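Exercise 7b. Backbone tokens:
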């Protein structure tokens, strides 16, 4: 109470997000405009609270893209927004075919995000890619303003390339996995990957699609097929996106 009919209210949040603030008199009557909807944003990035994650921080293979991710966070581990931080990544302990490159990329499409782009604002999320040359343990240093992020440096074991598909790492995506329309074929893709999450290029993997009812009984009238798409065509020729070696097209109706 300021003594002149005005009142000062203070609150301090530790979690970012959309809040609802209701101001009432004697817990019965709302004042004009109440409730209010303030947006609480993350604080400044704290290097020691920022994290990195991904299998490649512990295990990967030589002669293939090794990819992991960095998430910028504030002192309360709120994820940052935008692409305003610079992380310096060094991979030590052995030779590299490709030096580590850092890219702000919120949706994982390996395209540089732009803070003002509504489709991918970055959200303080960075992807890192490098290619190692020798089978040994590499040391991955992730720093910001001369200080290590949480857990850095990481020890990553590099192995010989594996061409064996690992079911738990194969990546499916597509609208056909979420919904379908009666009489219209539903489709999706599956990216074959090995145990290290590296994309495979083989076209001889025996994927099988089974369509079942919630009860577990097979749909006897359903048809399904899956085939290897292969390398994208050149100069606009088929196959066209989505395409790629190791990418499979699944369809059912």
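Sequence design result:
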């Amino acid at each position: 109470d300021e003594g002149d009919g005005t009142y000062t209210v203070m609150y301090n949040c530790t979690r970012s997000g959309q809040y609802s603030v209701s101001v009432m008199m004697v817990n019965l009557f709302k004042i004009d405009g109440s409730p209010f909807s303030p947006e609480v944003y993350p604080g400044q990035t704290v290097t020691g609270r920022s994290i990195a994650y991904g299998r490649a921080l512990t295990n990967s293979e030589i002669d293939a893209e090794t990819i992991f991710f960095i998430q910028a966070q504030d002192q309360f581990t709120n994820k940052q927004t935008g692409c305003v931080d610079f992380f310096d990544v060094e991979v030590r302990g052995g030779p590299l075919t490709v030096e580590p490159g850092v890219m702000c990329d919120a949706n994982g499409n390996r395209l540089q995000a732009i803070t003002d782009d509504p489709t991918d604002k970055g959200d303080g999320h960075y992807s890192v890619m490098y290619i190692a040359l020798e089978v040994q343990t590499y040391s991955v240093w992730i720093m910001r303003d001369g200080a290590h992020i949480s857990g850095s440096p990481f020890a990553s074991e590099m192995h010989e390339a594996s061409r064996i598909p690992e079911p738990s790492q194969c990546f499916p995506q597509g609208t056909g996995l979420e919904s379908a329309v009666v009489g219209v074929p539903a489709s999706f893709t599956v990216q074959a990957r090995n145990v290290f999450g590296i994309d495979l290029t083989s076209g001889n993997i025996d994927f099988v699609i089974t369509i079942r009812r919630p009860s577990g009984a097979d749909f006897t009238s359903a048809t399904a097929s899956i085939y290897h798409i292969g390398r994208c065509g050149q100069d606009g020729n088929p196959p066209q996106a989505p395409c790629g070696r190791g990418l499979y097209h699944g369809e059912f109706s």
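Instructor comment: The mean pLDDT is 88. The radius of gyration is 25 Å.
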